[in-house]
Amino acid sequence: SDKVMFYADSGCSSHLCTESIGRYLFNIEPVNVQISVAKQGEKLHATKRGSLRVKWNGKPMVLLNVLLCKELPYNLLSVSKMERAGLKIVFEKEKVEVLSSNGLVLRGDLQGNMYTVLLDVVEQHTAAAVSEPDMHRRMGHSSVHPTKELCDVCMKGKQTRTPYVDLPESKKPKRILEVVSSDLKGPLTPATFDSFRYYVTFTCHFSNFTHIYLLRSKDEAFEKFVEYEATVTSRFLTRISRLRVDNGGEYRSEQFQRFCREKGIEMEFNISRNPSQNGKSERLNRTIMSMARCLVMDSPLGKEFWGEAVRTAVYLINRLPTKALPDGKTPAEVWYGRPVDLSNIRVFGCRAYAHVSKEDRKGSLDPVSR
């Protein structure tokens, strides 16, 4: 044990210790506590809280919830905290005494203008003579017991991928079709009632507007991109500048890449095992499937109608506000350049009647709708 000086302080609400005796604390937990001091506008910052085993005149005791402050020059005993614990503190004849119902707990002396108490600080047996790296290992490589050295085990066992950050405004697309991302989903089971097993999406990053096409096989993705490219470029009289895709074989084919070269479209492939680089399409697929699943479950239709459900989901997603667009706009509003009309939307799978034209009716008494 070491003898350590504490000052009895009637102004602090918690026991405080300096960094030099922080190694004696046990049951430590990290904290972030701001402590006001007498000097106006200044604060102390406590980083840890723990218990401290001490002795006075051979009597063992434990100080609970002691805060460790690195900037603190002195150790402080909180008078108010001891009083809240049922102890009586008496200042008289240049002495301070802490009393319990069983008698004297500790005594200190007046030194200058402060009452001081000399305590023996006892080190925990489990932590005795244990180096910082060893304690870090004993405590399961916990950050509560850090080591200043680089821990190879922590690097191998805890390292995570650096999170992706949003693109700065300067790198975001400035016009429709400047950047388009695509992703293919499937095979999905069961196949649709008309034998489709896949779908592919194309999303314009500027407007967030998405087109979806159902596929019977993955190699149809090229045919659908050719159709998409012709449709959107004739609509806006502008070209697709960049196409962002994963490393699927449907995009890596020579036919697909040759078409993009001829059209002046730069293909941007994900780095292997980094799907977040095409995060817009990856997240969109999750949203489409979640909505389609709910649409099918909430309808009387079977799972083989998932093709109609995903197309409906994309139609609805295009008409929902997204935080990627300013002022609560929807992708369809940016794409079409006018407010969207939701009055034609009905519950997916509800009963609908189609008018039968006069030419298709056999007689005057035949139904006019079906």
Task: Describe the protein's architecture and organization.
α7 crosses α8. This protein folds into two domains: 124 residues, Beta Barrel (Cathepsin D, subunit A, domain 1), CATH 2.40.70; 166 residues, Nucleotidyltransferase, domain 5. It has 370 residues and is of the alpha+beta class. The radius of gyration is 36 Å and the shape is elongated. It starts with a strand and ends in a 34-residue tail after the last helix. The protein contains nine helices and 15 strands. The strands form two sheets. Strands 1, 2, 3, 4, 5, 6, 7, 8, 9 and 10 form a ten-stranded mixed β-sheet that branches. A five-stranded mixed β-sheet has the order 13-12-11-14-15, with helices on both faces. A hairpin with a 6-residue loop joins β3 and β4.
